[in-house]
Write a structure and sequence with these properties.
- This protein has 124 residues and is α+β, with helices and mostly antiparallel strands.
- Helices cover 42% and strands 11% of the residues.
- It has 2 domains: 76 residues, no CATH class; 38 residues, no CATH class.
- The strands form 3 sheets. A two-stranded antiparallel ribbon has the order 1-2. A two-stranded antiparallel sheet has the order 3-4.
- Helix 2 runs antiparallel to helix 3.
- The protein is rod-shaped and about 80 Å long.
- It binds zinc ion.
- The site of zinc ion has 8 residues, from loops.
- The site of zinc ion (ZN) has 8 residues, from loops.
């Protein structure tokens, strides 16, 4: 817990910390000023009391969860970009053409025509 919360030049003393409450200093959505979290401190961590939301381990777990979700979403978005989908189809077509050129007709399970149809957006 801090000695004081929300201290600034216009209110240098701020508000004294309440040792029964969560130690987190929170800000209203305006971002102006700050105050001690009004929830009861129920979890002890790093020698301080925290509410369930602000306990450092919970804050870290939540941040990592959000980051993992964001990463998965952005990877899916990139993979599904039309340019990447087209590139994947072209690479598949190239593999078939290369296989034909080297005398092998069993490149993957698609024929070159299938790959080209997929490239054009039709039935593969
Ligand atoms: Zn809190």
């Amino acid at each position: 817990m801090r000695e004081r919360y929300g201290a600034w030049t216009g209110n240098p003393k701020g508000t004294p910390g309440n040792h029964e409450l969560c130690s987190e200093s929170v800000s209203p959505s305006t971002g102006w000023n700050s105050y001690q979290c009004s929830r009861k401190g129920i979890i002890e961590e790093n020698g301080e009391l925290w509410c369930k939301q602000h306990a450092p381990a919970n804050v870290k777990a939540k941040r990592e969860k959000v980051r993992a979700e964001w990463k998965a979403k952005s990877e899916a978005r990139i993979a599904n970009q039309p340019a990447n989908v087209r590139r994947a189809a072209i690479e598949e077509c190239l593999a078939v053409v290369e296989a034909i050129e080297t005398g092998s007709v069993t490149a993957g399970n698609r024929t070159c025509a299938d790959a080209i149809r997929a490239l054009l957006g039709g039935e593969a």
